[in-house]
Write a structure and sequence with these properties.
single chain; disordered N terminus; alpha/beta; nine-stranded parallel β-sheet; 13 helices; two-stranded antiparallel ribbon
């Protein structure tokens, strides 16, 4: 039996007892317990949560995409759920992409010269203001996430989704590094000079020469390299080019080969990321997952393929348009942990998946000073 088979067999025994046969976690009509209620009711889960460095590897929470002001108090939600950090991202190509009625995101126009760089500069200012107004920590160095967990201080790893802001200028990697960015995603939806993405016809041979230069610069400075949205051919080349493990921050692992232009990845694709020592993040896509139970099923499927040492949370919170992710409130982190425990994950594996795996890659990638 695979891990997933074991977890499925256990689900019918423990989950209904926990929820009383109902609860929105499983698509029912009852009210599921909140994270605070879960902690108050279960000393084992409280201890497990407190010993876990909880990290979401990919999020657009609190309006990070393009809002002028934060839409809620992220610095309250992270510690209320007893998480440690969120990798908070804005898409570098946001001005030129749109979500169409069929829910697919497409490029709607070409950017003006310098437009995406100016947009990124505005978003970097937004991050500065968020940190100042809400009292968040920014993880910048090796050990910063460990310290945030120790101090129970909410933190963000500042990220950019897609390197279109570079516009062929490698020196801009150092510029955004100087503004606090420690995690860069190579490609997004708009065609990139870094290489091919999953949702457009692949015609650049995977990773470009400029993409390899950017990876080398990330390694030199100390930036986590994220290959979400990239074709498998790009991932293969990035794994050879990078001196540090790769993150594929948000996706789901398909049973077999995904459909053309799908954002899911094949088992072979996930294993390729794992072979670099990296981590595959499981997203909370509401078009395919209807509950946190479905979300944990997807985590189990990824673990079956890549191993518990190479799977993490990458919710893509607020990245699905008007429909919220199936897990969109960090205050409910204890609910996710309890559900994973009920499904048969060991405490050690939960600590790895919930943040330990990303913590390892972050500490290998960034500089100590």
């Amino acid at each position: 039996m695979t891990r997933r088979d074991v977890l499925r067999s256990m689900a019918g025994l423990g989950v209904l007892a926990w929820t009383g046969g109902a609860g929105t976690l499983f698509g029912g009509c009852g009210k599921a317990p909140s994270g605070a209620e879960r902690l108050a009711a279960d000393a084992e889960i409280e201890a497990l949560v407190d010993s876990t460095v909880g990290i979401d590897m990919h999020s657009h929470a609190a309006g990070a995409n393009a809002r002028l002001k934060a839409t809620y108090d992220l610095a309250e939600r992270i510690p209320t759920g007893r998480m440690t950090a969120v990798c908070l991202s804005h898409p570098g190509d946001a001005p030129v992409i749109r979500r169409e009625p069929d829910n697919r995101i497409r490029t709607v126009r070409q950017p003006e010269p310098g437009e995406l760089w100016r947009f990124t500069q505005r978003r970097l200012k937004w991050f500065d203001e968020l940190i100042a107004e809400q009292g968040l920590r920014r993880a910048l160095r090796r050990g910063d996430l460990d310290a945030a967990h120790r101090d129970k201080a909410p933190a963000i790893v500042q990220t950019i989704e897609g390197c279109q802001f570079l516009e062929g200028k490698l020196e801009r990697v150092a510029e955004v590094y100087g503004r606090g960015v420690r995690h860069l995603q190579m490609v997004h939806f708009f065609r990139s000079d870094m290489g091919d993405n999953q949702t457009e016809p692949a015609d650049q041979g995977g990773l470009t020469a400029f993409g390899r230069e950017a990876i080398a610069e990330c390694n030199r400075l100390g930036i986590v390299i994220d290959v979400a949205h990239a074709t498998m051919k790009l991932v293969e080349a990035a794994g050879k080019a990078s001196k540090t493990p790769l993150i594929l921050s948000h996706t789901a692992v398909a049973q077999n080969q995904p459909a053309e232009f799908s954002r899911r990845v094949s088992p072979a694709h996930a294993k390729l990321v794992a072979s670099t020592g990296g981590v595959v993040g499981v997203w909370g896509n509401p078009s395919t997952f209807k509950s946190l139970g479905d979300y944990v099923d997807a985590i189990a499927r990824a673990v079956d393929v890549a191993g518990a040492e190479h799977v993490g949370f990458g919710t893509d919170n607020s990245g699905f348009g008007p429909t919220p992710a199936v897990w969109d409130d960090y205050r409910d982190f204890p609910v996710v942990v309890r559900l994973m425990r009920t499904r048969g994950f060991s405490p050690e594996d939960i600590r790895r998946i919930a943040g330990g795996n990303y913590l390892r890659v972050f500490n290998l990638s960034v500089k100590a000073t």
